[in-house]
Amino acid sequence: MTKIVIEVADIGKQFKRPVALQANTLRDAIAYKWHNWLKKLTNRPATHTQEDSFWALREINFQVREGEVVGLIGRNGAGKSTLLKILSRISMPTEGQIRMHGRVGSLLEVGTGFHPELTGKENVYLNGAILGLTRNEINKKFDAILDFSGVEEFIDTPVKHYSSGMQARLGFAVAAHLEPEILIVDEVLAVGDAAFQKKCLGKMRDAAGEGRTVLYVSHNLASLNTFCTRGIVLDHGKVSFDGDIDKAVTHYLKGIFPLEKGTDGFSQRSIDGFKIITVKIRDSNNHDTPVMRHGEESALHFHFENKLSSAPHGLVIGILVTNEIGIDVINVNSIMTGATLAPLPSAGEIVFQLGRIGLLPGNYYITFTVNSSDGVVCQIYSGLSITVADGDFYGSGKGCLTTRAIYMPECSWSIRNEEICAS
User: What GO terms are given for molecular function (predicted)?
Assistant: First the structure.
């Protein structure tokens, strides 16, 4: 078993924030005025605020082993960045203990660890010295850092003149190439372009493959799901889940979408006179079913009520299906499929018929739209979800044996000898 490189025990971080004093009674107002008048006589500043404390983190406990790639997940304000600052020794915890076994390279907010008056080159050597590297060791890595960052033209310019993207590129290049045993990366990569983000993820994969430990914060759930093996979910400053990354993402999304109630309780916006009443899932025998089954045909039936005085022209009906990590897996409309749509009756249903379901088992979120040449007639924009249950897509009796994909294709396998291939 690999050794433990990060130990976090009962970590808590408390902050104080000023709160304006309010006089709720005449007595309070007179007391505040008198108090501040006395302070002026003694040349002390008047008091208009008092301090209110809050815990950004509380009772945080976990261990990370060498070579693990851990994603920190949580809403804005959950405490992710505060925790990373503590692990990077930028901030001290109010309570608890941390033990870090190895050199730590971190990329948090843009510019963290850089001296704004120093040039990019000087900051590279400064960061290397902080990590305990000799000048010769930094010299050997300098060209690789420069090439990766793409700021060669400005390397002798003070960092204060760099854009946020340039600072992020140089900061990541320094953190990754100076080969710390523990690499900590915050959402700061979002300021880079797509090509640079791809390079960064590749570099982090290389670091993990070399046995180094990576802690990664991102709101890109697809990136977390493909890159990390473990997820820690923070909620209101506490750990609400710690385990496999797939389950961590699912746990996080369930907290974000508490209103997702299958085909009940959806939210819609529509023009006066038109409304979706119910949504039903039906199987290949036209029977109502609570779930779709992997490998079987299903349909979504949108029952509507139409009291419009005139029929909408140029109807286009579309559906968007998104998986649990925010990836669009189906995006199709009636124009793309060449469908001929009849006029909307006063009451009826719109049917979205699916062939054999290739989607992997799991939960999916639906956006459904009815458009006309005059604009949106109706849109279900939240609260509608479906569940795809496991099934036997290939008729092999094996079911679905993977969770690291999005869609199962119609396919077959064969082995041919060389003579057949030549013909």
Answer: ABC-type transporter activity; ATP binding; ATP hydrolysis activity
Q: Which residues pair with 95 in a beta bridge?
A: 12
Q: Enter the CATH code of domain 4-256.
A: 3.40.50.300
User: Which pTM value belongs to this model?
Assistant: 0.61
Give the CATH architecture of domain 267-389: Distorted Sandwich (2.70)
Q: CA angle, 192 as apex, 188 and 194 as ends, to 5°?
A: 125
Domain boundaries, the chain: 4-256, 267-389
283 close to 257: Cβ distance less than 8 angstroms: no
pLDDT, one tens digit per residue, over 47-93 is: 554 556 789 999 999 999 998 999 999 888 889 989 988 998 888 99
Position 188 confidence tier, pLDDT thresholds 50, 70, 90 = low
What tokens appear for 53 in the block?
A: 């404390």
**How far apart (Å, rounded) are the C-alpha atoms in residues 366 and 8?**
40
Please identify which residue in the block is written with the tokens 């509507």: 304
The answer to whether 184 touches 113, Cβ cutoff 8 Å, is no
